[in-house]
């Protein structure tokens, strides 16, 4: 057994190591600074209670982006020095964010050990590579992101740190080879186990869904399927689940080899960045490349987000979570005994609210950030939840889960077609969505993203929108001057949330303008990028009349979009004549 010693390395605080709801995200070159990773990791260890570190089992893995392998070795050496008993690493350092949550919650080691937390190496849907983004976030023993109480402690620690512990003489571990490597240190044995990245997650999915019914769907001559991992970690699960378990053709998988730079692409599953899938599904600007598949889906870098498409048809994330909730009990065995409740993030459209009211379900509107859903789930109040930013999930884990959402949709399609897979007319994705609108009404919805805006200008923009709320008569005068047929603003505020579980209060969670006819404008600054600021503008209009639910979304929303852009003086503040992304 190789022995190691513990070194106390002197350090000093580094500015700007404040983790957000999605952990610490910066450019790779920032993480490569001397002591940068070490400071943040030690600050995290110091923020945890002793029992979550000394003698504990921790997971260290991520989406495989550039610099992950270096960071994994650093964290292993620091974990050994801080008294951690064992580290679990997905083969090649790969675990999707939902799989990490599943491993924490479900995996039991050969010696009966259970993980109490994880370092996840990801910058989610942001690009990877030597000049792109990297990130570290810590998840707790429930499998969910660290709460603010912990992330605040981490940040405070980064401002005063002067020493970190590391086992410098611990040799690098071969993370490509499955097996256990044992070392000896001052406090006894330290193990590093490399395990198959997919097996625990696949087992969990098989316990939730009826794989046999999905297999019948995928083998039907009426049905065709396409899944695009955008060269993210989702590719490590695509073949085991879709091909080996469900019998899909390997040719139905696009970009399913995980790459450090995501193949030079932007691993964000939307209509702008998932170009190859969008074209294959008949939604590209240059027209269809032959007959499109009946169903298509994409994942982001760490496979917690998803985009769902039908043949020449886009399903908004807000509609997606509402449709899953409306059909879950009859289509998905895991929910057969009923839903505990449903929840959405505030900027997400109110499509889920209407389903909840119709089905008499508990309903919650929370700030953006999966930890708010986690609190509700831990308290047994929520079964299904979603965000408009292509995140959907359930209480099987404490992260959003892109592949779970794809399997949920395949389950719904399989259920709707259980009588006609051998030759009848297929009930398509578009049919399912349009039938949903006919029952519940349609929430026309779009999101405008202005990425890498000057941070100062972005803050000024938000301050202006808050100040404008002080006089609704003035707001309505501006609105009517832009479009006389747009409804009046009935109320306006900054969204504030009191958590029903722990009574914590979250303020300044988005600026809302609520119209008399149920329409909404929401403005938020997003913290998911690594530099600059992203302004997100959400525009929503509810249509209950089934004869008017078939309009083109951008056409239906055009007057409200015009009002939003002029009311907010978006071009004046950002210097942009158009958003970076429209979804």
UniProtKB/TrEMBL annotation:
InterPro entries hit by this protein: A-D-PHexomutase_a/b/a-I, A-D-PHexomutase_a/b/a-I/II/III, A-D-PHexomutase_a/b/a-II, A-D-PHexomutase_a/b/a-III, A-D-PHexomutase_C_sf, A-D-PHexomutase_CS, Alpha-D-phosphohexomutase_SF, PGM
Top-rank taxon: Eukaryota
Cofactor annotation: Mg(2+)
Any one of the GO BP annotations: glucose metabolic process
Pfam families for this protein: PGM1_C_vert_fung, PGM_PMM_I, PGM_PMM_II, PGM_PMM_III
MF (Gene Ontology): magnesium ion binding; phosphoglucomutase activity
GO cellular component term of the entry, any: cytosol
EC number, UniProt record: 5.4.2.2
Assigned keywords, A-Z: Carbohydrate metabolism, Glucose metabolism, Isomerase, Magnesium, Metal-binding, Phosphoprotein
Catalytic activity: alpha-D-glucose 1,6-bisphosphate + L-seryl-[protein] = O-phospho-L-seryl-[protein] + alpha-D-glucose 6-phosphate; alpha-D-glucose 1-phosphate = alpha-D-glucose 6-phosphate; O-phospho-L-seryl-[protein] + alpha-D-glucose 1-phosphate = alpha-D-glucose 1,6-bisphosphate + L-seryl-[protein]
Record-annotated Alpha-D-phosphohexomutase alpha/beta/alpha domain positions: 17-161, 200-309, 318-418
Enzyme class, broadest EC rank: isomerase
Region (Disordered): 1-21
Function: Catalyzes the reversible isomerization of alpha-D-glucose 1-phosphate to alpha-D-glucose 6-phosphate. The mechanism proceeds via the intermediate compound alpha-D-glucose 1,6-bisphosphate. This enzyme participates in both the breakdown and synthesis of glucose.
Similarity comment text for this entry: Belongs to the phosphohexose mutase family.
Subunit relationships: Monomer.
Protein name: phosphoglucomutase (alpha-D-glucose-1,6-bisphosphate-dependent)
Organism: Dipteronia sinensis
């Amino acid at each position: 057994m190789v022995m190691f010693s513990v070194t106390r390395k002197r350090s000093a605080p580094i500015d700007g190591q404040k983790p957000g709801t999605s952990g610490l995200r910066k450019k790779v070159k920032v993480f490569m600074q001397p002591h940068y990773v070490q400071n943040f990791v030690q600050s995290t260890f110091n923020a945890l209670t002793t029992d979550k570190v000394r003698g504990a089992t921790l997971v260290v893995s991520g989406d495989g982006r550039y610099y992950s392998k270096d960071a994994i070795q650093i964290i292993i050496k620091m974990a050994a020095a801080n008294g951690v008993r064992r580290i679990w690493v997905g083969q090649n350092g790969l675990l999707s964010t939902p799989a990490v949550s599943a491993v924490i919650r479900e995996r039991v080691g050969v010696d009966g050990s259970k993980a109490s937390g994880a370092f996840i190496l990801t910058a989610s849907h942001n690009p990877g590579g030597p000049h792109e983004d990297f990130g570290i976030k810590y998840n707790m023993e429930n499998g969910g992101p660290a709460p603010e109480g912990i992330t605040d402690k981490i940040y405070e620690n980064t401002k005063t740190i002067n020493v970190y512990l590391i086992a410098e003489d611990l040799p690098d571990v071969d993370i490509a080879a499955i097996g256990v490597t044992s070392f000896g240190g001052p406090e006894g044995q330290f193990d590093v186990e490399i395990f198959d990245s997919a097996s625990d997650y696949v087992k969990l999915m098989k316990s939730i869904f009826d794989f046999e019914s999905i297999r019948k769907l995928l083998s039907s001559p009426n049905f065709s399927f396409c899944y695009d991992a955008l060269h993210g970690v989702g590719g490590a699960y695509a073949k085991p689940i879709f091909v080996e378990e469900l019998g899909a053709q390997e040719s139905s998988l696009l970009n399913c080899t995980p790459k450090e730079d995501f193949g030079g692409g932007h691993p964000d599953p939307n209509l702008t960045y998932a170009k190859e899938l969008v074209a294959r599904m008949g939604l590209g600007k240059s027209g269809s490349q032959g007959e499109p598949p009946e169903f298509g889906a994409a994942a982001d870098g760490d496979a917690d987000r998803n985009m769902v498409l039908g043949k020449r048809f886009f399903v908004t994330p807000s509609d997606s979570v509402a449709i899953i909730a409306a059909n879950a009990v009859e289509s998905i065995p895991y929910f057969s005994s009923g839903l505990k409740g449903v929840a959405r993030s505030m900027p997400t459209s109110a499509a889920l609210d209407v389903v909840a009211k119709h089905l008499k379900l508990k309903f919650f509107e929370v700030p953006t950030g999966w930890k708010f859903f986690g609190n509700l789930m831990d308290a047994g109040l929520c079964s299904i939840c979603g965000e408009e930013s292509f995140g959907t999930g359930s209480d099987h884990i404490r992260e959003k889960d892109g592949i779970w959402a794809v399997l949920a949709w395949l389950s719904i399609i399989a259920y709707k077609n259980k009588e006609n897979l051998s030759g009848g007319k297929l009930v398509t994705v578009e049919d399912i969505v349009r039938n949903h609108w006919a029952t519940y009404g349609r929430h026309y919805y779009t999101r405008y993203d202005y990425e890498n805006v000057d941070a100062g200008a972005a803050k000024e923009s938000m301050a202006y929108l808050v100040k404008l709320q002080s006089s609704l008569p003035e707001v309505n005068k501006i609105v009517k001057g832009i479009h006389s047929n747009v409804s009046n603003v009935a109320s306006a505020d900054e969204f504030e949330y009191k958590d029903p579980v722990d009574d914590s209060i979250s303020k300044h969670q988005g600026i809302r303008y609520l119209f008399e006819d149920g329409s909404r404008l929401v403005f938020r600054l997003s913290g998911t990028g690594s530099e600059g600021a992203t302004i997100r503008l959400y525009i929503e209009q509810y249509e209950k009349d089934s004869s008017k639910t078939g309009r083109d979304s951008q056409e239906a929303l055009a007057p409200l979009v015009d009002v939003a852009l002029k009311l907010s003086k978006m071009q004046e503040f950002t210097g942009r004549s158009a958003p970076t992304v429209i979804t």
